[in-house]
Model the fold of this input.
Amino acid sequence: MGPSDSEIFGVLRCAKRVWAVASMHGEAEKLARLHQELVRRFSVGDRIVYLGNYLGRGRDILATLDELVLFRRELLCTPGAEPEDIVYLRGAQEEMWRKLLQLQFAPSPRQVFDWMIQQGVGATLAAYGGNDQDALARLRDGALSITRWTGGLRDAVRSHPGHDELLAGLKRAAYTEGGELLFAHAGVDPNRPLSEQSDAFWWGNGYFAGMNEPYAGYRLVVSGFDRGHAVRMGTVSACIDGGAGFGGKLNAACFNLEGRAVDWLEV
Done:
């Protein structure tokens, strides 16, 4: 593994089982209840991967990130726990938020902003003290005004302990060090190597759901978001999205290194 790969991918070392948590979209109360049960089932050798979409859609985005930060601290207090045992993936909502904070560099800022609002980024904007109308005024004023506005949003994120650090450390995907399991937000394009997935990690594609052969030697690829919010447990791929943020459930599944789901949580 190259020196830069550890900044891009999470590597789960010495894992016996891996817990995967699906998209939550600001559902802080559901996440807290899931954590309460998860900590009771967590065993030595377990690892945990959050599959993205912590932001967007929901009304409790700040509380959701607070809960992620607090639970991480709780897990790291257990004997033998290491920071690398807990991995947070970048979901579509986090990718949009990252691009929003760089909006001054977009060729067509207004078009990009309108599309992001349609995809649910407005909830995150409001959580950090922004609003659509102020944003539109800044967009009309040009790049310097947009830069000042995005700088204010960055400051707002930094004002909440742990938020900036969590969002800055998001990974594109995660895998067990032996190559048994691969975790990605919205799946993978089976026709591309891991290093060339690009936006397939965040937006998915029509090929993932129909995969019938193992991808790149992994026994199972697990995703946490599906546009139809459908749980699917296949032989070489799985999606655990229960529709949190869209009126559905927040799911977590525990997988062994053979690629079988051995435990399940739903709130």
Remarks:
- Residues 91 and 135 are 23 Å apart (CA to CA).
- The chain has a mean pLDDT of 94.
- The longest strand covers residues 251-256.
